[in-house]
Amino acid sequence: MSAIAEQMEAQLLSPRLSRRAAMGAMALGAALAGTGRPSLGRPLPPPRVTRKARNLIFMVSDGMSAGTLTLADLYLQKMEGRRSNWLRLASDPAFRRSLQTTHSADGPVTDSAAAAAAWGSGFKHTNGAINITPDGRQHVPLCIHAAQNGKKTGLVTTTRITHATPAGFSANVPLRDMEKEIAAQQLSRGIDVLLGGGTKYVTDELLAQVRGAAVVKDAAGLGAVDTLAVARLIGVFSRHHLPFVTDRDASIPSLPVMTERALQILSRSADGFVLQIEGGRVDHAAHSSDAYALICEQAEFDETIGVVEKFIAGRDDTLLVITTDHANANPGITLYGARGRAAFDRLAAPATPRKSFEWVYDQMSLRSSADEKVKAAPGLVEEALGVKLGETELGILTSSLRGKRAVPFAAANVWTFVLGSILADHFGVGFVSPNHTSDAVELLATGPGSEAIGPVVDNTDLHGIVVAALGLAPARNLPGMEELVPLVKPKTED
Ligand SMILES: [Zn+2]
After folding, report:
1. Which of 23, 162, 227, 255 has the fewest CB atoms nearer than 10 Å to its CB?
2. 372 Cα–ligand 1 center, Å
3. Partners of 374 in beta bridges
4. What does the pLDDT look like over 119-178, one tens digit per residue?
5. DSSP secondary structure code for residue 50 in this structure
6. 368 CA from centroid of ligand 1 (Å)
7. Using an 8 Å Cβ cutoff, are 132 and 113 in contact?
8. 195 φψ region: left (φ > 0), alpha (ψ -120 to 50), beta (else)
9. Closest alpha carbon to 359 in 481, 218, 208, 246
């Protein structure tokens, strides 16, 4: 038993502690362990929604720690002389700010599947599962539920469309990796607007079975869509995730542009719409300890907030939620005073355009042998990041690339974390790990229904709030949804 657990038990056994206080402490302990909330079959607390929304726009900066929000704000102050839209709106009296708790059914640290499914159907899920709870029950996801009530639906993301977060609003699978099945469900269930990456799963063969949809494959095609004529739009712009902002060419549309097009189509709906917008690669840059790519992804998400802000201006019929599914890697400037400022200035304003760590990885992968990969690394890091590594730094990176342990924390021994740590001495931004964390996360909301979001909200509670705000009649199971589905242990959690 840990020292903290021993202290807690000693306090609980102390006669000075009242029974009520002891119960409270036990509940707190259970909550901290991530198992405090009953996960199944509990009635949702009655949301105190007093206004009805016609539309829901649910914006997700995937894997955004508070540190990521801060870094993007500092970046925009430096480069554009303004606050981020997110922090500006946090001071707007029309917006409510909340801290969201995110633990999954199996632990304090959620993955994106369990988190998105918590919003999508209102239950705690095991990491990896999407709208199938640990008891095997299937639950109607939010977009499908909304469509049953006459609403149009849309999913816009910088990841594969079939990735965990959009899947949480649209699919039922025991394992997030079942992206072929997710694609088939998203298309057959009639999601009206799908924009993102992932032709690996949203294949031409699958698209050929879809009737009445405009299909586009690049930014020019998306730009040419007549949004007044098209009712259903599917845009898939890369084989996997969209490239990071730092690595993109003009054939890939940006998140703000995809969002604009989605809103133009969905807002023609007679009965309103539900649109999820995900800055999905914020999470990936955090996983790879890549500070510059992280800031650029978050800045793009922030620009997308500006697009949505324009859409809701002067309307009182749209509930807007801006949040993240979980924290990730907890980045932050961690050098004091002027030293920190100088380091961040070097990071934010590079002499030559930067590429991501992913670009470095892709270039290394072109080399055939392990030795050649290692030999190419310093030149590629200099080309991508504008930093010539010193002898000691190179020794540490090389050791990590060869699979040796370079960090005391075993879970952090991936070369990207090692490179990120080395670059912290140059750019001032450190990361706690390459993984998600249990931190409560930021949430902003405005419009009808936002009044029901308190200062602290659990991810599962948001489901009940948006359903009540939209005034949805109870969901009807799709054929086969009464069947119980056994869960499968996930290979990946991210
Ligand atoms: Zn992740």
Report:
1. 23
2. 30
3. none
4. 999 999 999 999 999 999 999 999 999 999 999 999 999 999 999 999 999 999 999 999
5. -
6. 29
7. no
8. beta
9. 246
